[in-house]
Amino acid sequence: GIGAALCRRFAAHGAAVVVNDLDAEAARSVADEIGGLAAPGDAATEDGVAELVGAANERHGRIDMFCANAGIGESGGPEAAESAWERSWEINVMAHVRAARAVLPQWLERGQGRFLSTVSAAGLLTMLGSAPYSVSKHAALGFAEWLAITYADRGVTVQALCPQGVRTNLLDDTGETGKLLLGDSAIEPEQVADEVLAALGDDRFLILPHPEVAGYYALRAAEPGKWQGGMRKLQRGLP
Q: Is 211 exposed, middle or buried (0-12, 13-18, 19+ CB in 10 A)?
């Protein structure tokens, strides 16, 4: 999905890429394709992050950019299982916290580093039918913003990638609701990667592959009642 597209784009522009995925075969396939290093494992856990960062440092001596891209989408509301809420928090939020914990010391010492947090437009807005996803993505955005404010003056650039629908397995897993809400405007992972590359040139905090999200976000802040009314209308049209 987005991760593989980013790997290909970065490698094509001369970056030395370390590829991580829970699926070891998938990580090795992309790494072999781009001449990178496969470091499979669970990037949501403290040990998994330590192994990934250690592998990158051992091979290349430093990390210039970390892409916190892992994510899951659990459906449901308050009735969703405790395990669904826990997985969402661990993967969509704590994976970012643990990654930052691992890379910040070297970046602060060097006075340079870049953290790309794959959030979602759901972190700026919401995702109907999926409270665990919406809540955890808001938290991921909040953490990215906190990092940006806290460390910008020490040389660390933080960016939050917030697309709407992207044609990946994650979108497929949302079923009929996701297709109705996001299918028509969904874009390819390669388009997201292109937008990220463009954003690296100006260090913008919010990377919005779907530009219309900026208008939705502004409306949500300025007129929450009007925005929620529009979302309720969408909710009424869902199966």
A: exposed
Catalytic amino acids?
A: 133
pLDDT at position 14: 96
Per DSSP, helices labelled H in the chain are: 2-12, 24-34, 46-60, 82-89, 95-110, 131-151, 169-173, 175-182, 189-200, 212-222, 224-236
Q: Can you give the pLDDT at residue 176?
A: 65
> Please, what's the b/e burial string for 180-196 (b: 16 or more CB within 10 A of its CB; e: otherwise)?
bbbeeebbebbbbbebb
Asked if 143 and 160 count as a contact pair (C-beta separation under 8 A), the reply is: no
What CATH number is attached to the domain comprising 81? 3.40.50.720
CB 113 within 8 A of CB 106: yes
Residue 169: pLDDT over 80: no
Report the residue count for the chain.
239
Structural domain span for residue 101? 2-236
Q: How many domains does the chain have?
A: 1
Of residues 160, 14, 23, the one with CA closest to residue 4: 23
For the chain, the straight-line distance linking the first and the last C-alpha, in angstroms and rounded, comes to: 27
Is the pTM higher than 0.85? The answer reads yes
**Would the pLDDT of 218 be above 60?**
yes
18-62 pLDDT tens trace: 999 999 999 999 999 999 999 999 999 999 999 999 999 999 999
Please give the Cα distance from 121 to 194 (Å, whole number): 17
